[in-house]
Each structure stands twice: as C-alpha cells, then as structure tokens.
C-alpha cells in the first residue's frame, strides 16, 4: 500500500478540476444491468471503486471497456451469473447496488452481505425489508443475500425507517421494472439519487418526486439510452478542495463544480469567514481564505443537510478557528476515527458519543498518521498540508478509493507531496 510524504505548511495556487462523482458513477454503472445493449458513460473518475464495480460486472458475465485517459466506460450487460461475490463486495460496500438491478431484470440475485467498515456496521436491513414488500423472497444465509421473485414484482408503498442513499437507489431500479406503482416514503434526496432517477427517466421510466422525501415510480420497463451517460461532478471532492484552500490559506479556483448541490457546505465555510464566489453558473468556485476563522456548530444530516462525507474535512478546518466548535455526526455511529490521528498533529478535540468538541486555533506539527476511511483520509492530507514539518499519511488505499490522484492535483498546485510505496 502507498503512503504520502507531505512537507508543510504548503502554499498552493492556481486552478483545480473536480472529477466525476464516485457516488453517482457507482449506481449508474450498476444500472447498466437493467438493459439489453451497450451503455456508455462519460466523466467516470479513475478510482479503485470503479475498478471493483467493473470487476463485479465482469464476474456476472458483462463485457466492459474503460478508456481511463478520457474517462469513458462502456458496459455490454450480458449477465450470465446473478452473483456479487464476497471477495469484491468486501472491498466496496456499494456492491450492494448489484442487488436491485439483478432482481429487477432477472428476478434473482445472490449478493454478498457487504459487512461493516471502519465507520459503522452499515447494515442493509432496510434494503431487504423493502424488497420483501415488493414480492421478493429474500433469505440471508452464510453471508449472502439470496433473493428471488416469487411470481412478479408488484409496486407498493415503502416507508424507509431511516434515510438510506443506496437503499433508495436499489428500490428505484426495482420500481421501474415492477408492475404498478411504487411509492418510496422517507427516500433519500441526495443529488446522486436524483442523477440515477433522471437517467432512468431519460430511458422512459415514469418517476416523480426525485429530490423530495416521496418518490413515485410507475413501473413499465426501460429503453436503451440513446447517448452516453454524463457523470455529474463530485460535490464532496469539490468541498474538500474548498477546505484545502481555506486551511492552507491559498486562494484557489475550483472548476467543474455544481455549487447548487453544495449549499449547506458553502454556507458553513462562509459562516467561518471564507469568501466564495460562484461563477459560470456555479461550475466555478473562486475561494478566498480569511485570516481569522469563526467557530461553528455543525450537525451532519441527509441532503440537503451538511453531508457526513464532509465531516472530517470541516472538523480539521475548525481546529484553525478562533474558539470552540462542536461537530455532531448524526449518520454513522463510528465516524470519528480521524480524531485520534489529528490529535497526533496537535489537534485539541474531545469526542463524547457522537459529538466532537474542538478548541482552536492550534498549529499542527507534522507526524506519521494513518488513513482509516475514505473521506477521513482526505482530512489527514489536508492537516498534513497545514502542519509545520513532515507528515506521512499511510494506508493510502482508502484515499485512492474515493479521490482521483489527489496528490497529483496537489503537486500541480505547488504542494510538496510525494507518493511512496509502503
Ligand atoms: C451512501 O452510503 C454513500 N455511499 C456514503 O458515502 C455516504 O456516507 C452515505 O450514503 C450517507 O450519505 C454511496 O453512495 C456508495 P445510507 P449508504 O444507507 O447508502 C443506516 C463514501 O465515502 N442504514 O444512507 O451505505 C446506516 O448504517 C461513502 O463515499 C441501516 O441501518 O448509507 C447509516 O447509519 C461512505 N440499514 C444510515 O442508515 C440499512 O439498510 C445512512 O446510511 C441502510 C442504512
């Protein structure tokens, strides 16, 4: 596994381009299972999770082509085995997104339980309960979900006990192929869910309420997409770049964004004192750091609330604010592992249950630290860039799962950062 060596503090300057959204690309790639012909995708980011998704599709019998340089992927969904095996799903929990399309298109699926990950148990009970309500027989045996449609998928009303992004996505796949009307109550409003729904609508699906807590789907099947599917920009990567600009006090121009999907994140940074101009219909962010950052009280929440995937980044930034901040992690039960690593750099953070209390400002001192989960690894790079001296961030696999060569983009902006094999 690789590690990053960072000499700080780093002053950056210039422009950076945000890559395609991982959490949009994954559900869209799995949606190709619903079709009988080639589906082409553009602006696919170069990430380990994309590698794993294409491997899963190939194990099912699909042919895939990935032109990495231009970010184009084509999937020929000739599915033969309706199985998503453990050795792939354990690497990427989003493998659970094979379940909905296989059941919807082929009436059967054998998908490994994803298992937990660093940030929590990550159960999929809401997915299973909803499928059962749609007429799917679901048994969980020996670490696998065995699903089969008894006679046909029948639309019904589903109430999710808690907002679930991939749970909503799995039921979108099934609803478009079911008979009758499916109503998803307390469904996720995340832009990645809307992007999947809009794609399915462009293929003839009858869906209303995308982006609201109530989505209504009239079953009726799909027609092959007539043009390549464009992956939207990654709003979490964009937010991460804003936090890097503010922490290193380096004005940056961030391109290929969609500011309209970042309102809660931009509002928080502006409340801290950042100046962020939105240009070119919100596809460009011009970020100007402040000398003094104000402390905040932040609570993560489902969209349009403050995203849990940005919690580690803003927690790191709040270490530089003047005064006491509090960050409440309301989505996952164990998403503060980065705090112990940040403390090694000098952070003053206390965690009590799902509340982190931060005293600032502190001056980070470089030290060896370890990445734990995908988004937290970005906050450690951010802290390393801000620290005095050398920081070594190990277990970089986590970072490469979710960010397209973040170190290369940082080097181009002037960061003293090198990748070494561990
Ligand atoms: C998606 O995960 C994202 N992943 C996560 O991003 C993101 O952090 C999360 O949504 C929340 O926004 C992808 O889209 C591939 P949930 P997902 O189902 O769908 C509980 C990243 O870094 N729950 O919305 O797995 C669950 O434990 C990743 O890219 C159940 O209890 O999250 C959590 O506490 C990390 N039972 C809460 O609901 C279920 O059946 C929200 O989870 C499903 C979820």
Keywords:
422 residues, alpha/beta, UDP-n-acetylglucosamine1-carboxyvinyl-transferase, Chain, 4-stranded mixed sheet, globular, binds ligand EPZ
Describe the overall structure:
By secondary structure, the protein is an alpha/beta fold. It folds into 2 domains: 203 residues, Enolpyruvate transferase domain (UDP-n-acetylglucosamine1-carboxyvinyl-transferase, Chain, Alpha-beta prism), CATH 3.65.10.10; 205 residues, Enolpyruvate transferase domain (UDP-n-acetylglucosamine1-carboxyvinyl-transferase, Chain). Helices cover 32% and strands 26% of the residues. The chain is built from 14 helices and 24 strands. The strands form 6 sheets. Strands 22-23-1-24 form a 4-stranded mixed sheet, with helices on one face. The longest helix is centred in the middle third of the chain and has 13 residues. The structure holds ligand EPZ.
């Amino acid at each position: 596994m690789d590690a990053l060596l960072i000499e700080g503090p780093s002053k950056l300057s210039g422009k950076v381009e945000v890559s395609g959204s991982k959490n949009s690309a994954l559900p869209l790639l799995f949606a190709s299972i619903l079709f009988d012909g080639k589906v082409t995708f553009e602006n696919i980011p170069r990430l380990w999770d994309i590698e794993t998704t294409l491997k899963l599709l190939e194990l099912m019998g699909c042919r895939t082509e990935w032109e990495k340089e231009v970010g184009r992927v084509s999937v020929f969904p000739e599915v033969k085995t309706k199985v998503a095996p453990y050795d792939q799903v354990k690497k990427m929990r989003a493998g659970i997104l094979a379940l909905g399309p296989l059941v919807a298109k082929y009436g059967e699926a054998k998908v490994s339980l994803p298992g937990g990950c660093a940030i929590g148990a990550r159960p999929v009970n809401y997915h299973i309960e909803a499928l059962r309500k749609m007429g799917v027989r679901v048994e969980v045996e020996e670490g696998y979900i065995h699903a089969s449609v008894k006679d046909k998928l029948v639309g019904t009303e589903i109430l999710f006990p808690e907002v679930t992004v991939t749970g909503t996505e799995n039921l979108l796949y099934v609803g478009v192929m079911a008979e009758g009307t499916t109503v998803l109550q307390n469904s996720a409003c995340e832009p990645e869910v809307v992007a999947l729904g809009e794609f399915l609508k462009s293929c003839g699906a009858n869906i209303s309420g995308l982006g609201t807590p109530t989505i209504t789907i009239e079953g009726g099947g799909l027609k092959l997409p007539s043009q390549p599917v464009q992956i939207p920009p990654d709003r979490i990567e964009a937010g991460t770049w804003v936090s890097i600009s503010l922490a290193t006090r380096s004005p940056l121009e961030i391109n290929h964004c969609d500011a309209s999907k970042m309102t809660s994140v931009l509002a928080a940074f502006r409340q801290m004192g950042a100046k962020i101009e939105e240009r070119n219909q919100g596809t460009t962010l011009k970020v100007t750091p402040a000398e003094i950052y104000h402390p905040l009280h932040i609570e993560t929440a489902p969209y349009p609330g403050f995203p849990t995937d940005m919690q580690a980044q803003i927690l790191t930034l709040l270490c530089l604010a003047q005064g006491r901040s509090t960050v409440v992690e309301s989505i996952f039960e164990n998403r503060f592992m980065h705090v112990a690593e940040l403390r090694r750099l000098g952070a003053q953070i206390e965690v009590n249950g799902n509340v982190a209390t931060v005293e600032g400002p502190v001056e980070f001192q470089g030290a060896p630290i370890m990445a734990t989960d995908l988004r937290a690894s970005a906050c450690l790079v951010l802290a390393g860039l801000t620290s005095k001296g050398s920081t070594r961030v190990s277990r970089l696999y986590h970072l490469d799962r979710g960010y397209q060569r973040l170190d290369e983009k940082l080097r181009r902006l002037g960061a003293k950062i090198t990748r070494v094999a561990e």
